Structures are given as C-alpha cells and as structure tokens.
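Re: weekly structure request thread

Next one in the queue (297 aa):
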Amino acid sequence: MSGFSQENVETIFAQSGESLSALADSFNQCFDFQYRLEMGESGVWSPEELDDAFQGPGLVALFRIGGEAMAGLFPANLPLPDWYSEPGDSQSSRLQTLALEWSMNLIPMDLGDVDEFKTYYVDNLLSEVTACVPSEWAALLRIHLFPSEEERDGQSPSAVIPVIWPLTKPPVTESAEPEADPAPQPSSSSSSTSQATPQMAQATSARPNQNPLNRLNKLPVQAIVKLASKKIEMNQLLSICPGSLITFDKPCEDPLELYINNQVFCLGEAVKIGENFGLKIDRVGFKKEYESKIIEF
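Done, posted below.
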C-alpha cells in the first residue's frame, strides 16, 4: 500500500478533475441539491486558506488509509440541510454513502484500500483539521459549487469545499481498526496460476487493489427484523393508548424476516443472547411465494 505522498499529489488533482461529475451527483443526491462542481485553485495547505465560514460548524468527510487521511470540509453556510447536525437513520446512510463515493472518486485505486470512510458533524471545522495534524507538505484542493441553472461565465462560486491531505492523526473509529494481514497461503509448484483458489488470490499482497469494489465492503447497511404486520382502521389507530393490545395473525412459531434496505434477505428464529435479542438464520436468499389466484375450470 503506497498511501499518500508528495509524488502522487498531482495524480490526485488529476483524478479529482476527471471525477467532478460523479462528485456532484453524489453531493446532490445526499443533500437534495442541484449544484455543479468545478475545480478551483490547488496548492499547499495552511490555516489561513480557510475563511471565517470554516471557524464554525459543518460536516467532515474523512477517508483514512492506514494512519493518514484525506478530509473534505462542508461548512454550514453551503447551506447544509437542517438535519446535518443530528441526522436520522436515513440521513446517516446518505452521509456514509457520500463518504464512500467521494473516497472512490478522489483517491486513485493504486494508493491502496481505504480503511475507513465517514461523514460526521463537528462544531468547528478549522479546529478539527488542526487537531488531525496536517503534514508539513499537506495539499489543498478547492472544489467550487455553482447553482446548476446559472450561466458559467463570470460568476463567483456559491461556496467552496476544501479537500486537505494527508492528515497524520485522524480520528479512528474503534470498529475500523486495521485488521491483521492474512497469512500467505502455501503455493504448489505442480499447480498452474489458472488453478489458484480465490482464497490464495485474496491473500497475495502483491496485488492489493485487484477488485475496485473492495471499498464497498465497509459501506454500512440497515438490517431490520420484522416481527409481524397488519392493516388497522383509523379509529383503532386513534384509540391506541398505553396498555392497548394489538393482535397479529402471525403464529409465534413462524420464522422472522430480516430486511436489508427494505428487501427480505433471509429468515430466522428469535433467540436470546445474554440480555439481548438475536436472530438465528435458517434460510438465506428467501423469496416470498404467493398462492395462485387463477381459478381452474
């Protein structure tokens, strides 16, 4: 894994310029905006490069490779949507998808796998960047935002998103600690390369970025266990109060459905794990089977 270096700064600048359309699509989908993005001036980072807007709250999109990271700063005056400081489950999923997609479009694959990506709220953007300790040669890339419906000639950007790297002391989520490299698998001289197993190929350190979709493995998805459902009349809904009892037609012994992003993924049975609830998986890739409604004569 090569990571960030002075030698690949220009490569990152070039990829960023080529990926502006994808970066804009991701940004607009996350925040329900209609902006277009253009490359601004690039150079060397210093605190003086950030104006007063970055001495207040905003969002940080951070992409970590090993012990260093790249960060994009989204100040509150973009403007960000009302939910940005306290996102719900749906908004949190949007923010993490934004971090994933920006990491894929800003960081070339040959720099190594991104160990962690996240978008999070901070009270002061400049203080957060300073606490992450940019290196002495840290680079600064400016991405300009323009309303998509306006003419391009002669207009000033509505806002600027600075991207800074490398940060030498980025915040690391405990669950995102780098895993130990898998032990290399012994090779057999009697086997050809075409007979290598997937496990051996995955463990080969000489080809660390073979699959460009590896970063998707760290994308969080929402898992929901559905107990039962039914339709009720409005008068029953309005009469619900503490102590009310709602009955369902589903038998207690029937399996429970596990939904991934609102799609049934598998079936299982409820179990107790310590003081918590768990689901023991019985079937994966379940598809509902519906009884035929065709009347045969």
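The radius of gyration is 25 Å. Residues 89-106 form the longest helix (18 residues).
Next request, please.
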